[in-house]
Amino acid sequence: MTKQLEALKPGKYAIRYFDNWDGEGDTYHTIANLEDDGRWLHDETGRELLDCRGDEILNVWPLDDGHETLALIAALEQAQQPQVSPLAVKLPTQEKYDDPLSAHEAIKDCAEAIRAAGGTADEAE
Length: 125
Fold this sequence. Notes:
alpha+beta, 3 helices, 4 strands, rod-shaped
């Protein structure tokens, strides 16, 4: 948990911590602020939480204004929208290939149209 705590940004958190105030300790939940210098301060009293030997932060949950969450939701919504192909490809029409045996010609013509539009069309080996 120590490495995870080091990666936290200063701000307000809901925390579960072990308070060793009497040598045997108790576990509490509270709201605390992580300061720039790494100290945890109780949100209501401003007193330092980890003031006894053996005190330890057990779990943390960020309580932010949600701006990062809203940005993530917006990015996910955009990623789910269908992407418009940047290539404007004009493919040959079906009328040109009335004969069922000319399918290979249709494939070659489509590949050429894609290449001409700037895309890639690798032929099957």
